[in-house]
Amino acid sequence: MSQQGTVLTAEQFSGAPIERAHLHRGFKSKKTPLKWIRFFRACVLQRENANIKKKKELKKIWFGAVILIALGFLINYFFYFPFFLFILAVIGVAIILTSKTKSKFRKNYTDGFDFFSDYFSAFFALIEEDLQPQSRISLEANVKNTMQSANLVKQEKHQSNTRGFISGSNYYYEKEISNGSCFLSDGCMLSFNFTERLRNRVVKKRSASGKRKTKQKYKSVYPFVLKMKIPKAKYILKSEVDTSDIQLAEDTDFYIVKTIRKFDIRNEHPEKYQPYASSSIEMFSSDYFALELINLINVSYSCVTPRV
């Protein structure tokens, strides 16, 4: 994740208003689970308030456009002037103002990715009892648009035998959504990495009437990698460990267990899969997400037994 000026540090959080520390800007900080939950909720509430304000502004723009067109009609009834051009000008200005208002909202509050509030709030609430007293969770996030040149990993041609197919390309993007770490009460260190992998397929086709069309389809998956550093002073590695779904290593003081959970809506809930939506992460419920991560922790602990 970029560490440039748009990312706030922990020191800046204390005096920064919510709008400066909003999710879309990215953040890196350490907080207790309760403070993280409050922060996420505050961000979501502010976004909701801004969305209400945006809708009111859009209504004013188009209400004003209707009033101007009605006045133009009355003026044109008594005095001739280019009424048709006047209508086009009013509608054009209204469209430009609408576009600017929506663009400003997207820039300041981002579309989607409010899952941080529900997903991580649920996860942090579940692990809070297992943390050290007043332990803080370090969390870094980046929810900016994935389809940027900086995130482009690979580009390749797409071939198809379907009728009217002209050409196609696949664009593969990868972006780290978040990473974090914390210490559990038994001395274990938990760290995680959450990534978005997105395939954008652009296909050009010709219809039966000869009209050329361009269609875009998306496939997104979200690998969540969890690593547990389990202290040898408190745990013993089991004699037989199934390593088919985990990666196991060790150093002088710790057993290191790495587990992966790849969230993929097309494979797990094909009925919810939307090929024309670039993001699918919000289709997984927060409870489902949190419990899956807790399962990764349990899998890690299943590799060891407590010392007597």
Automatic annotation (TrEMBL):
It comes from the Bacteria. The chain crosses the membrane at residues 61-77, 83-99. Keywords: Membrane, Transmembrane, Transmembrane helix. This is DUF3137 domain-containing protein. It comes from Aquimarina algicola.
